[in-house]
Known about the structure:
Number of domains: 2
Organism: Kribbella italica
GO molecular function, one term: metal ion binding
Number of strands: 8
Keywords: Lyase, Metal-binding
CATH class of the largest domain: Alpha Beta
Protein name: Sirohydrochlorin ferrochelatase
Strand content: 15-25%
Shape: elongated
Strand order of the largest sheet: 2-1-3-4
Pfam families: CbiX (PF01903)
Radius of gyration: 18 Å
Helix content: 40-55%
Amino acid sequence: MTDLIAAAHGTADPRGIRVIHALTREIARQRPGLPVSLGFVDVDRPALPSLVDRVVADSNQTVIVPLLLSSGYHVSTDVQAEAHRRPHQVSAAGPLGPHPVLAQILADRLIEGLAGGGDRTTGSVADALGDGRRRFADRLRGVDSVVLAAAGSSDHRALLACSRVAAELAAVVDRPVEVGCVSGAGERLGAVLARTSGRVAVATYLLAPGFFADRVAGLAAQAGAVATQPLGADPRLAALALHRYDEALRTAALTV
């Protein structure tokens, strides 16, 4: 069986590390028998190149699945470098986003944030793609608009991906959604919040707690807006990671 290597962005925040490990465990739980391991593109260990060497030595084939929300430097450079280094053994899957299931999770986080917490809604990737996509308009009464708070990137592909997720979220919640970035290119979150009138909710488009999530929460509080929790170790994210893994396997089979 072809191994799955989850490639994550490291963090010095122990809360974020716990979420990344929990998401990796959920991926393994959803696909019994699939060897799943976790490597990092920066900050934490094991570093992705050393993990790839170890996994390939034990299992001839592996797919790297970026636990990252869009194409950026780490996806296009770090992950692709491993696929190019071992082209007959390593395949690179696409990042988690954009994908309609992310809009569904973000909408659920909005409802949780406005309600002050509560049970998290779970489902499958197919739920977000089918005709039965849930509408959230009635449960977001009082919210005039939403700002999608993203990490930001200097890569235009990442910015385009965030815009696509914002459009998909707008369709789900029936509210206008703009993108505000914490770093990199793109309009800064603080500036977007400052010019957005009415009651605003901030959808935190980040995987896990950490510096960026704390920054989003702080800027939202300054603007008098509610900010959601990060996406977290949601089972739908794990299902999406496996979806990317399966896509990469199909692509590799077509190129043999």
